[in-house]
Specification:
With 118 residues, the protein is mostly beta strands. It has no helices and eleven strands. The strands form two sheets. Strands 2, 4, 5, 6, 9, 10 and 11 form a seven-stranded mixed beta sheet that branches.
């Protein structure tokens, strides 16, 4: 089973930027679909962005043109670069892996808190 560890969260002012990292260990990272999700207390976890093994990406409408997902297969790491952050982007961000395609995202990290102040 793959282990995922997120880092890079923190406190930033509105319109600032943050970059999240997720390091994976175990398995064949280059074949995995990798995604970022976020969740606020008491709310459902929502999809943010995903990177697929064929280098294609997908984004939630709310983050298009502001967030960029990328991956470095040599480092077994996926990144989420976030620009023009808004207070409503405040959430715990989770990295998730889809190790079998087709299939659900089946592994996730512990999450990293991002707080955007107005």
């Amino acid at each position: 089973q793959v282990q995922l560890v997120e880092s890079g969260g923190g406190l930033v002012q509105a319109w600032g930027s943050l970059r999240l990292s997720c390091a994976a260990s175990g398995g064949t990272f280059s074949s995995y679909g990798m995604g970022w999700f976020r969740q606020a207390p008491g709310k459902v976890r929502e999809f943010v962005a995903a990177s697929w093994s064929g280098s294609s990406t997908s984004y939630a409408d709310s983050v298009k043109r502001r967030f960029t997902i990328s991956r470095d297969n040599a480092k077994n790491t996926v990144y989420l670069q976030m620009y023009s952050l808004k207070p409503e982007d405040t959430d715990v961000y989770y990295c998730e892996a889809k190790t079998k395609i087709p299939g659900p995202f089946d592994s996730w990290g512990q999450g990293t808190q991002d707080t955007v102040s107005s």
